[in-house]
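Complex record, two chains
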Amino acid sequence: MDGAEEEPPRRRGGGALAVDLRRARAAQRRADRAAQRAASPETPPSRSRGHRVACENREPLECVREWFRLHDWTPFAFQEQVWTAYLAGESGLIHAATGTGKTYAAWLGPILEWLRDYPSRPRPKPEAPPPLRVLWITPLRALAGDTEAALRAPIEDFGLPWTVQSRTGDTPARVRARQRERLPTALVTTPESLSLLLTREDASELFGHLELVVVDEWHELLASKRGVQTELALARLRQFRPSLRTLGLSATLGNLDVARDALLGLDAAGVARPGRIMPGLVPKALEVDALIPETMERFPWSGQIGLRLLPEVIAAIEEGQTSLVFTNTRATAEIWYQALLAARPDWAGIMALHHGSLDRATREWVEDGLREGRLRCVVCTSTLDLGVDFTPVDRVLQVGSPKGIGRLIQRAGRSGHRPGAVSRLTCVPTNALELVDVAAARDALDTGRIEARRPVERPLDLLAQHAVTVALGGGFVAGELFAEVRRTNAFRDLTAAEWAWVLDFITYGGNALRAYPEYSKVEVRDGRYVVTSRMVAMRHRLSIGTIVSETSMKVQFLRGRTLGSVEENFIARLRPGDHFTFAGRTLEFVRVRGLVAYVRKSTKVTSVVPHWSGVRMPISPELAIGIRAKLDEARRGIYAGREMAAVRPILELQAAWSRLPAPDELLVERVRTREGYHLFFFPIEGRLVHEGLAALFAYRMAQLGPISFTLAANDYGLELLSAEPAPIHEAIEAGLFSAAHLLHDIPASLNAAELARRQFREIARVAGLIFQGYPGVNKSVKQVQASSELLYDVFERYDPDNLLLFQAHREVLERQLEQSRLGRALDRIAGGRVTVVDVERPTPLAFGLLVDRAREQVTSEKLSDRIRRMVAPLEKAADAPRFARGRSRGFRSGS
Amino acid sequence: MTDARVRLAGEDVLLLPERALFWPRAGTLIAADFHWGKGATFRAAGIPIPGGATRDDLERLDAALLRTCARRLIVLGDLFHARAGRIATRTLSELRRWRNERAELEIMLVRGNHDRHAGDPPDDLRINCINAPSFVPPFVLRHEPDGTAGRYTLSGHLHPGVVLAGPGLQRERLPCFWLTPRTTILPAFGGFTGLAIVTPAPEDRVFVIADDEVVPVVLRG
């Protein structure tokens, strides 16, 4: 029961919208209760349709074919190819769009092998199933239950004595305890849970019978530290079990060979282990278009259209049976869900919201509803990018830029699973320029340009974490583990010096020469690195992984269920009685107790939506090239296709006020507003590259004289804002766009912009400097908590040679700023021409940067000179508690 | 070094960029929230924090003592961060060496919340520990601020800082002295301490520490 339901209904405002919302919310409550009743069972039901196949003493492949026949299926050629390769002991990478049979391509191999090796084995006792043979790694724990159900179906139909279970952060303690005694024959798990298993002292026995590791959705893991974590775990498993085979399942990428090499690692001689790259089904037909307002006047000059296309979105949803509405952020999902519900209150109960911060039971209810065709529409984020088929889905909408071709294919592929159907994706622009993105994406699709994903190289923070994991899981000898980790692609170039530093870091705290007697984590006993402290072991197990999130707080009804979680600093800004929108409802904030924010339902209409500081994805290089080409066409007066025709007035305005850049031209606009002097640059290389360029340009201009800049960047360009006019022409003369001295200037400018300091947050967490804690943290844990910024400052000051600091700088260079792209962008700019235009007011291209308030700073002025021009905000109302540390926390803490 | 001179409860005092307050008439240097041994506490928990913060703090303290010729040092609480750090041998031996070189200096600690957990400093450091509030006319000295007390209070605990905004959307987070009509809250002295951003009221005054200067801040609603 929700607490709010016991309160008498309140009358507010009146008006049609309020009435509709009340009705809508009543329906929503009914739907919520249904969701609660459908609370997830411990074991997901198998998908078996009861087509039993007797396999005793038969040719295994015959049995499998018969099983397919009973389902009215025929094995695809690529599936049989994978089975044969597997039975021949091969590893490899299978790539194809989601929903094309990759799962059974990988899964039936080990089943065929079992049928071959045990043709007439009597059924063993159910309490003693065969030990762990297959490990199935999935990137999202939300997918584990579904995968488990899909894997179980053939096991039941063939009557194998196997057990299939999953083990993730969501697995109930009871099941986990049982798994401590005995693991199932096939285990579905996440990279983090696998690392946790590796901390068990009997790890080598646990995996002693492992035949196959399947890494599902490998493209999702590949380009992140979670991918490296998987690589390290795989190296460990291959050490336990040299004959182990590995199959990766991936979407199609621009660099499949790299994806395969990272998955399979190197052999003892340092040579890439062999493995086939096996294409799955040819992609189905794919259509991409965009919603366009009927009248062009609906485009304001700035191009920002936000929710204006709501009626068109509703019409599109009505066209289909079941629609997915993808957004790029959770906040956008909340906003669109609210807007749709307000416009179509009759959809309450058949429309749902799905994103990563919502409670798990709610998400599962939504997923089931999608599968069963109960839902008309789901507003969602990337959490529904992956995994299982939602066959009823026949319409996919994408709010905002698709950002990349691969992502567009993936999202479009969520629809059209009915025979003969095409996959169709309709983009909903939130500003007019996104229509250019859509046109460019379609061009890239037609020419088959798909993005590559680059694996992370040598993250020492993760290596330190892994070394502690192995020290816990039976301990290690330094030289042996060094050889083992060098067999991963990520650490193939790890130097002996770096390894020695990692060992120092986990045993002496970073510098053996300075050894602090009070420090203890990993100890060396008889040449083996081991962990003996139970405290260290517990803390390590609780902080394994590489996913860094803001401290989040549970959002819960006063006497009722949990809705999900939002970031602590959002809650900290609220005062009791404030209203905000979350999980598709308006809530009134009541109070905070521990890590729980209590709320009650509210009938107020509010636009306050929690902000989640996730990574905002930049447009891909392939899409950037396409966008530059489209703008060039527009410059030459060519507006091909509906999208370009629609955005034409905006682009013509841009051309009239300033100009449209040619592909070999960098457009710079100068304008003065009340905020100060703005410089806008438009390289059109994606936000991360622009962040780097902004820091670099600001740094180089600041070398010419004392000046302070605030920086902003988006996918189209960057902005430098200063209180005084910036010496742009002087700076260009002095080599503002030169690719020379980059290796010096980039780190120097990054220091100023503090990107490295921010990057340190993740590193500090992964390397175990920050303990994120868990519910019920006690005083002794609070005493060892410090912000990563403070830690960064302390290291910079007292241990400047710490390799984790170097890693922070390197990561900013390589990943945050995509160094190679930055260098290429500068080469492109240096090889072309620069046009500086003075404009009277911000142009359509510049407007997006003006409304983006996430800004960085670069300065060459003395701090005290600068702050004399600054002001501090005054307390707004008299009701704020004096001397409170943080608004809602009261008077207590003092560390 | 540029200090700021202010008048509190009829006394002239100096706000020092060393993150301390000097009261010339009483020859007394006052500072809060040292959190000594915090790095050692982290290390004892298996978190490898480099040492050096304590030595830096001592050097800064020496500089302030030398500049002001103070005869007495009053610490407004949280001298030690936690028990584990207090007994860390390296930190202690550093402190003992420092204390021996300044045998004539009188040191007083007004106990704070961390001191209650960490315990009093060892006797040979010769630090006179008292419970708050302590009355040293005309000031009341305590760790946690209390805006309701009858007399003017000097306190710490908050680690106050402000975010300054400048032209061109500039932002700067700096530690500060926060002066209200009834109490002054000192910045945290220790180098390994964080900041809590505070919002002053119209009748308050705020002085930020900008490198080696103490600068008054313009407050604007």
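Note: Chain A touches chain B through 70 residues (CB under 8 Å).
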